[in-house]
Amino acid sequence: MLKNLWRTTFRNLTRNTATSGLNILGLAVGMTAAILIFLWVDNELTFDSYHPDADRIYRVTSHVNAAGWIWAATPPPMAAAIRATIPQAEIVTRIVPGYNTILRKAGELIFEKKSAYVDSSWFDIFHFDVVSGSIATFLHNPYSLILTESKAKTYFGNKAPIGQLIHKDSLDYRVAAVIRDNPANSSFQFDILIPMQALMLNPIRRTQLLQWGGYSFTTFVKLRPNTDPVRTAGLITGILRKNRPEDSKNYFTLTPLQSMHLETGVGKAMITHGDRSSVYIFSILGAFVLLIACINYVNLTTARAAERAKEIGIRKLIGAGKRGLFAQFLLESTLIGMLALAVTVVLLPLAMPFFRELTGTDFQQPLASLQTWKIIGGTLLIATILNGIYPAILLSSFKPLGALKGRIMVNFKDGTLRRGLVVLQFTFSILLIACTLVIQRQLAYIRHSNPGYNRSQVFYFTLPPSVFRDKNDSEQSALVNVIKARLLAGAGITGVTMASEPIVAVSNGSSGGADWTGHDTAFVPTIFQLSVDEDYKNVFQLQLLQGRWFDPRQPTDNKNFVVNETAVRELGLHPPILNQWFVFQGDTGRIIGVVKDFHFASLHDRIEPLLLFNHPNTQTAFFVKSRPGQAAAALSATRSIWESYVNDRPFDYSFLDDDFNALYQADARASTLIITFSGMAILISCLGLLGLAAFTAQQRIREIGIRKVLGATATSIVTLLSADFARLVLLATLLATPIAWFAMHRWLDNFAYHLPLSPWSFVAAGTLAIGVALLTIASQSLRAARTNPMKNLRTE
């Protein structure tokens, strides 16, 4: 019986090679796209879940209530206090980033950004696969290191890394262990781990790190089974209030380990967060692409039903049961799915490098992962159910006598289902195209909008504290002036200024500590602050609306302030603005100028009140503006100056344009992914249309012959065969437009500054879909129209 089913199935597939080929190709492309998307979604949703007892691991999260801030960091002594006083905490551990660790190997300075100090209990909570060496050696020797496998390869090549020395902070550290590279779904993407003991052996750092006032360490707790995390968080809050009564408004919560990746609004985090809305969007996108591919199969299979009506009638008359026919047709769809899966298995490794680059996620070889095969199996199961159940029920339900006379189900003969599925298919495709056009338009607006300052050709660097060691304020100021003068004399450099933060992402804001004329003390706004020098306005070409900029010849200007337009408006500063007194964090001065608003953060965020002041001891970064086309010369000159003052770390710099683009990296990646998969959706839809158009032309071949004999032109025949499909795609455009409008309106709400929705984006999406569909249909219609009519009529 089973052998007979397989033989019949193969015979039917090989008899209709064109239809089978379209089905297999469409399903393979759809399954590949869907599997890639679901891999990314699964990666986002399973962050850190591979650790044992991950559901009992929590991060202690600080809520600085006075300012309304949420931080992933806690005071350094908190871990020891939890360990000593809260029995519900089974294990407590801490981690603190190494903050750009400088290593020296074989005389070469290496700047490592992915390093961290960890407690000895770190490995009691978190799982790492040891490739070589020993965690125990690492724990018992404060001057040891753990490297990831790839980092060990970078440093030592094929040489055994265990026991090798790396110089750090004037000391030799020995490699104690090598661990496997961090999984793509790990929040802890550190290449170098250093014992916390090494940090604490420095007497100055030890004194600083034992203070309750600083929030610098990330603390994790593993709770005992059946422990209430809310109650435990309350006990942790009690520890803070006992040791630091002045922070009585602050409190703590426990954030589940597996929730960290998709959390929002948390500062001082050591991890790169994901976006929950992107997870939802791409889950829907994956489902759309798979559904579009499955619609092709259903359409082509049901369209061919009439050709198989007599076969079904004969088989029923000689005793075939409905259940047996159902099994055969379900087996056909399963075989198509298996063949499509075989093509998918070939396409996945080919597409993976491109997909890694698109997502910025370092997926391992997909076919080597059990999770990948689970996703593949789930996708195949869904595709088989969508593809097989309805056609199998439909085909097996034909009445034998009616089928032999050429009569089949009326609804099916009218093609209502097929037309509905084509509309649904193109509705999804047009929806994706419209969203892509809107997203691209908004990102172009971001790239080309005027932020209110000129960041072009500007790079920056920060001198390490060692340069100013053992120097008083006046000596530091004199050294800074010398460095600025040397930079200005350098080749290709046209301007130099100093500031506390890059202008593209000012993050230092505070509530409280501010007062001004007419201030209602109950009003405690968040005010962002930026320390700048006297050259800042000219280098960045800021526009002053009132007053003047800071003048080094005015000794009182180190107490005075310049405010932006938003500060004037939201703080309720009344005219005349200039010379009003203003108090901020202990400094009392005057407002000497009002600067035109500029975007000092992402366009996702609205412009906030900004206070600019000139405190030289807080200006840690040099911003260098190069002449057009002379960036290389300016960098070379700056590097020479750096090396004359700094010999313990490599020259490290960033361009402001790169920092600006990084603010919208997630948006750009989402846009590229949507463009890519929208293109695949259109390709799959057109494959289905190609098959349906060919089938329609074949069914109307005699009609076409008669029309040609009576004088019809090829153009009129193409128009005749294309009209029905064009109406369907037009209907899909009308259905997709309001859905896309609503979705993009919600997406644009994420930006404080955005372009209005343009109807032309939706018109263009519909026009593109209709154009591609008509080209696809016309190719088959023209082929039919050019066929010799006598050949088509000869069988009559």
Compact overview of the structure:
The protein is α+β, with helices and mostly antiparallel strands.
General description of the model:
The structure is a single chain. The protein is of the alpha+beta class and about 800 residues long. The strands form 3 sheets. Strands 1, 2, 3, 4, 5, 6, 7, 8, 9, 10, 11, 12 and 13 form a 13-stranded mixed β-sheet that branches. A hairpin with a 2-residue loop joins strand 4 and strand 5. The longest helix is centred in the middle third of the chain and has 38 residues, at about 320-360. The two termini are about 40 Å apart.
Shape: globular
Mean pLDDT: 80
Q: In this structure, how is the largest beta sheet organized?
A: 13 strands, mixed
How large a portion of the residues is in β-strands, by DSSP E?
15-25%
Instruction: Give the fraction of residues assigned to helices.
Output: 40-55%
Distance between the termini: 39 Å
So how many helices? Answer: 26
Number of strands: 25
Radius of gyration: 34 Å
Structural class: alpha+beta
